[in-house]
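Run folding on both entries below.
>entry_1
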Amino acid sequence: MPSGPFVLVDDDGPVRTFTLNEPGRRNPLSVPLRRELRAALEAAHADPTCRALVVTGAGTAFSSGGDLASMPRNDRADARDRLHLVADVISLLVEGPLPVVAAVEGAAVGAGTSLAAACDYVVAGRSARFGAIFGRIGLVADSGLHWTLPRRVGPGPARRLLLRGALVGAEEAHALGLVDELADDGGALAAAHAVAAELATAAPLALAATKRLLADPPATLADTLHAEEAVQVGLFETADFAEGNDAFFEKRRPVFRGA
């Protein structure tokens, strides 16, 4: 196995890009990669200069999914350790305060589909492919896909994709809602950076609150109204709201500080 780094980190102003970096094997989510990605996400969420994230893959694929070559057989402890690592990664993507944009070229299959689905916004090249193909090797979908996929595409399409394990192209994935934006082949990363740069100018506290509400939605309308009220009352007291309000009346772009 290559010695790494398995995740490349690059900053462009307030946008931080993570590149899954084992292109010779189409960027499988090996244990070392999971560890590096978890550490990179933790560092980004703790860095006040970082305002938006992009996740992409090196070479011709986003990710081929789990690392079959090292998957455990008859070793429950090892299996649990691997799953706990990827659970941490998915939780950081979904529940972390920073918005995350996936840039998908080529295959994003198995846990690669799960990784993309956990991001807030997915840009895909027109030749990209997605698929919950876990059943082909006798496994069930993991990495949060039973939670993220129905929220993206609805319960009916999610059931079909999870049970049949069929590959879907970028156009169909876009029509279903798994992909948010299509780009020409080779252009997904640039398009994702444009989205991330836009998100990086938004009010960080409001974005983080929106992510929290989406990740843990209240069960009823009444609960939703109460949750929104609790968040909004706090945001009314922030410097960012004062800045946004002033900028609106002064007809200029606001400069948010996350305070």
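>entry_2
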Amino acid sequence: MVAAPNWLNALSLALALPENKSQRLYQLATVDSKGLPHARTVGYVDFLEPEDSPNLPILLGMTDIRTPKVGQMRSQPYVEICWWLSGSREQFRIAGPLQVVASPNVDVDVVPKGEGTLAIDKLTRQGFDWETKRQETFERIPGPMKATWCKPQPASVIGSYDEGKTWPQTLAPVGEEQSEEERQNRETALKNFALTLIEPVEVDWVQVGTNPHRRTKFTRNGEEWLEEILVP
């Protein structure tokens, strides 16, 4: 029977520990068209997998389609995250190709090529509705956070921090908008909201809470995962 990779089991167990309860942020690294690296902290959303294929997990995230990192993903759609869980003192570095699921009203083409998209392609062939998933994920976000998707373009220059006080502070749940302005803000935010799909093909797991420290590398070969024990 096909099973989830050992690194995902380890990560799931680590996230379930009380001491890691608040550890839901990780660093995402991208490379721009000039070969320069860029890193930022993003929030964990979930893992997806094709039906009957727990061995092919996909890391689900979210972003604003207008951010500089989306352009970087377009020029180099291979990324790596670094997830440090301070409670259990474990680090997971997860690398692989990335795709962006944007609104149908946005023209974005961030499509990695080759075998690296095995899981994403398989889920798509099974009829997975990415647009429904995008909207469902958006609806689960708290109102104040939703509002960040209808502010001016991220990384654009502003005159002062006071300008932020004029931006929408929250968005009402769907169907509960009280004005045309609120409806337009919601429409803008949903248009700018996008999912990121990282398909892990290499994982480096370091445990420094053990003595001696441990390090294990996982490499996907087709639909199988190879494991190697490394010097920490």
